[in-house]
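Quick start: read one record
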Amino acid sequence: MRGKSQIIEELSSIGHLPNRQLGQNFLIDGNVVKLAIRWAKIQPGNQIVEIGPGLGSITAELLAAGAIVHAVEIDGVLLDKLREKFSAFLGNSLYLLHGDAVKFPLAGVDDGTAGAKGAKVIANLPYAISTPWMESLLQGPLPQSMTLLLQSEAAQRLTAQAHPRYVGAIGIRLRSAYDLCCSRRVAPTCFYPIPRVNSTLIHIERKEKPFLFSQPCYQTIRLLFLHRRKQMQGIIKKYFDDIRRPILIQWLASIGKAAIRAENISMDQWQHLEMLLQR
């Protein structure tokens, strides 16, 4: 694992400056990489999806562990560097895709190629794409596990830890399908350039019977959370049409608390809404 000086030298050799808009904060702490590999239980032959491999710090460890890596990288300069660096692995144990991870949340892997349901995701996710990428991925098929390095606020929103204010539509969708197994705070000094926020490494594993929300239901939940300070009965009356409103009124009646707010609704109750909408 290369340290800060080696990362700077490598970026300089290709004339590349970290792109803030793409959230390029390169991981320089080998201990974090080793922890991610250990949590993901990487075994030879595992199908791994890597999002934004950058300069390949995690990629190198995955390949050394005998994994088959499918990586998607949006930066063409970095992609060329990866192709040069790992040329011996291309088409054998490494497959690189030039594209947007939100459009290709599993780096092009699907059931017809490497079997997305058996894949494991490892990613140092930029904050700007963490939610849209997760929304895209959770439409299925669902990978076996995900080991994600996220800005701490994003990790709290996805796992709904610490406080009800972090509960939101994306967290409900994720926790219906995955269980949080491990999490650890990662200091800003573990990255170059140093971000202005803390990060958190999380490891989640697919439930034995994951619950998948449909897009119409998920969009309904999102709208309800957009007005999270308001009571549900008022939101339903004001923001939903004559088709959706009666279903939501029926659902709210089943909860038995018309004055309840979105952040206080249980997972079972959200899943009940999905079943009502599917009738």
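The first helix runs from residue 4 to 13.
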